[in-house]
Design a protein that fits this description.
The complex is a heterodimer. By secondary structure, chain A is mostly helical. In chain A, 51% of the residues lie in helices and 0% in strands. Chain B folds into two domains: 45 residues; 127 residues, Immunoglobulin-like. Chain B is elongated, with a radius of gyration of 30 Å.
Chain lengths: 252, 200
């Protein structure tokens, strides 16, 4: 009798402690997490060590075969013949991997790229990314690349170079090269030194209007909304003309 | 004597049976209770309910003010739709901000003047520090931790908030802005207007 009552007491004590721990723990979590109901997630990709390892695990030889599907728009060696299409040569593996993942999950929308990304497995994605990462950016007489494009307005160069190298502290605009190379690289930020002008302009406009919103923690949306119309033109034209300082693949 | 002896001998069997059964059933009950409580604890430790930022195990391992700097955009209080000034249940105002290379997001926040405001700031990459112009206040933003401070702005006006901790090649342009407005004006502003003041 005494024995069983003791056991019962211990049992109920354990239960009480468990309930108290659960309630207080949940209350603490609830208190720190007052999220508004519609939670918007910009991208399913998070740059954890696992994700980076997965995105860097591609086999470029397998990628070479898969990338033949991309030739028509992105060019045989990653330089497009149409300036409205992005160049992929020497693009960081993590960038291509993230964008394909975002197309697949619908976080970035494109009627052309979404079905293509859907047809690729995770390993295919890493392989294609590894292939383009290995492509050189040196000029090749055999391909008909659209890059570089002529600079329509020479006045734009000064505006763009200032923003690319120095940014604008009064508006909190960081220099483009601090993240997009060649000075610094932030994980997942594309190198822009060999990118086509119309494509870049379209992306800046899309970030500013919110049509494209797959940037993690609002980075590009915050910056693009603050750029004036002239600055958007100037930046994309100058990058497209290959005028970005010390154009070349980012140092690794 | 023999009578009482025989009584003693006769009486125990049913009593023994009874107490044995009671021990058995109470042991079973105890096992059931223990199993239920163990299950509940396991559920709390492993399951992340929709209203929670992390599961119980993560909570116990990380402590109350810890966050994963790489997954701020996926879950928890620093998802992009929850940044900026928000009204608390208790009637106060909380400002949530992420410091990252080389921006504070949101870049501009509107707060009511003369009211204590709760700041919750974390970093997505390296250590940053928010300095608030015209005041002595500085808030350090450390990756992995949420730094909480209470501040009050006595006068309405614009406060510049540059970064005060070298954080990389874009450090010297890193700044955000805080606009303190009278509390009545603040109440009438929409959530978007409280956040998107960067161009004004």
């Amino acid at each position: 009798m005494l024995y069983s009552r003791g056991l019962r007491r211990i049992g109920s004590a354990v239960l009480t402690v468990a309930i108290v721990v659960m309630i207080s723990g949940s209350a603490l979590l609830l208190g720190s997490d007052a999220a508004e109901p519609p939670v918007r997630i910009p991208s399913n990709v998070a740059w954890t060590a696992t994700t980076i390892a997965k995105a860097s695990s591609g086999n470029p030889l397998r990628g070479l075969i898969i990338a033949r599907r991309c030739d028509r728009c992105h060019g045989r060696e990653g330089f497009s013949s149409s300036p409205a299409v992005p160049n992929l040569a020497a693009m960081d593996r993590l960038v291509v991997w993230k964008q394909l993942d975002d197309f697949r999950s619908g976080k970035r929308s494109s009627p052309v790229m979404q079905p293509i990304a859907n047809s690729l497995s995770e390993q295919d994605t890493a392989d294609v990314a590894a292939y383009y990462w290995m492509m050189p950016i040196a000029p090749d007489p055999m391909d008909d690349r659209a890059f570089p494009q002529p600079l329509p307005d020479p006045k734009h160069e000064a505006v763009a170079v200032r923003l690319i190298t120095a940014g604008d502290g009064s508006r909190g605009l960081p220099p483009c090269q601090a993240c997009h190379g060649p000075i610094g690289l932030v994980t997942g930020a594309p190198s822009l030194t060999t990118q086509n002008a119309p494509y870049l302009l379209e992306q800046i406009e899309a970030f500013a209007s919110g049509r494209r919103a797959n940037d993690i923690n609002l980075r590009m949306r915050s910056i693009a909304t603050q750029l004036t119309e002239e600055e958007r033109q100037a930046l994309s034209e100058s990058y497209g003309a290959g005028l970005a300082p010390s154009a070349g693949p980012p140092a690794r | 004597m023999p009578n009482s002896n025989s009584k003693v001998v006769l009486a125990p069997p049913p009593a023994e049976e009874q107490s044995g059964g009671e021990v058995k059933s109470s042991a079973r009950k105890m096992i059931r209770v223990a199993l239920i409580s163990i299950t509940l604890v396991c559920v709390w430790l492993t399951v992340r309910f929709p209203f929670q930022a992390e599961s119980g195990l993560e909570y116990l391992l990380n402590g109350p003010n810890s966050v994963n700097p790489q997954t701020l955009h996926l879950r928890g209080e620093f998802v992009e739709s929850n940044l900026g000034s928000t009204d608390d249940a208790g009637g106060g105002v909380t400002v949530r901000m992420i410091a990252e290379q080389y921006l504070f997001v949101p870049q501009c926040v509107v707060v009511p003047a003369g009211v204590p405001i709760r700041f919750r700031i974390t970093s997505a990459d390296v250590v940053h520090k928010l300095t608030i112009s015209g005041t002595e206040d500085q808030i350090k933003a450390v990756p992995g931790y949420v730094v909480e401070t209470r501040l009050q702005f006595p006068r309405a006006g614009v406060y510049e908030m540059p970064c005060h901790e070298f954080c990389g090649p874009g450090h010297y342009t890193m700044r955000s802005r805080l606009i303190a407005v009278p509390p009545e004006a603040f109440r009438n502003l929409s959530r978007e207007a409280r956040r998107d003041c960067a161009l004004q």
